[in-house]
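Lecture 7 notes: from sequence to structure.

We start with a single chain of 152 residues. Read the sequence below before looking at the structure.
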Amino acid sequence: MKCPYCKEDRDRVVDTRSYDEGLGIKRRRECLDCGRRFTSHESVEEISITVIKKDGNKQPFDFQKVLTSVKIACRKRPLREEKIKQVADMVERQAMEVISKEISSTQIGDLILNQLKDLDSVAFVRFSSVYREYNNVDQFITALEDIKPQDD
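Now the structure, written as tokens:
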């Protein structure tokens, strides 16, 4: 790392600390040429995910859109804000695991549904009705049968 003062690239690390819940590292360095100290920051490079919409258009993955969709589905449900955010976080994490770094909006919808299915059945049906574009009551009944607990 080049010293910001003398521009030489010989230094030693004096102290290392993590920050931002372990997502970054701050290193205190000392230049071996001029003796002055400076700080460097390291973080994981953001991985960009491209979402392929139903009409074929492509756009960057937007965590905020996922969070907003989940919040709308969970509106007036007895769920804490942190649980809703955990759903969106899990969807983002699963989307990042896609090898091609391109994911369809349909796959994102399915990831959200899988999370909501275990979290809240009403939120599941709400999201499902918009995402799957139900046109009649029979489609709602089918969705309810999918999440209804089976009697043993």
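Helices lie at 63-73, 81-96, 105-119, 121-131, 137-147. Keep this in mind for problem set 3.
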